[in-house]
User: Which sequence fits this backbone?
């Protein structure tokens, strides 16, 4: 049975995942490489539109459409 409010990574390592990665450069590098690869795969596909939901003033979506001009920002 799962424990209420249990965070398995924290329970196993005594830190949350981001605290752990800040102390382990290899884990941090692997995580960042994975996130970069995932983002590149998605953005290189035939994406036509991307919607900014709750994104403050739209800085990220502005950058995305400047790098990928075939994508329409909403």
Assistant:
């Amino acid at each position: 049975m799962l424990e209420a409010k249990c965070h398995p990574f924290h329970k196993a390592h005594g830190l949350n995942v981001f605290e752990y990665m800040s102390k382990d450069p290899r884990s941090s590098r692997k995580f960042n490489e994975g996130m970069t690869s995932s983002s590149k795969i998605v953005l290189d596909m035939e994406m036509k539109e991307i919607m900014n939901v709750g994104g403050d003033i739209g800085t990220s979506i502005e950058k995305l459409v400047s790098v990928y001009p075939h994508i329409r920002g909403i």
